[in-house]
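Q: Hi! First time doing this. I have a protein sequence and I read that you can turn it into a structure. Is that right? Here it is:
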Amino acid sequence: MITNMDLNKFTEQFQLDDQAIDLNNIPWIPQSERVWFKPVRFDLTTGSWINLLKVKPGGAVNRHRHSGGKVMAFTLQGQWRYLEREWVAKPGTFVYEPPGDIHTLVVDGEEEMITLFILEGIIQYLDDNDKVVYQDDLFSKMNLYYKYCEENNIPIENLKY
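A: Yes, that's right. Below is the predicted 3D structure, encoded as structure tokens:
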């Protein structure tokens, strides 16, 4: 039988330390024209990652599919939509995307969009014939972050766990 004391010792010994990350210290990383991301966490054990996505008006994230896990998003600023859907995400909107969903993110209007995304697995960018032309995952995002910081002499925050 495990007592509360045993459980407390176990937790202290094996849990990860908590972290408070000042996102003001993390730069916006260019992803494509009018699109940037700001990494928040990289989970090397599950292959998931968390980032803020910023898209200027008229910007888009090309048609893509999420493989290997779900995506959850919470809109903080501006609005965005998928060309393939009827809804529009505005501040306070929570979006759930099942694995395998194919869509094209666009930002209409006058205001830039900022949304917190929690992603699992791989993002596969597709051409009009559903052929994968590029893919992103935890490691490609980490690489973009590290490379950008090194090229711009910005300290790299420890976002891995």
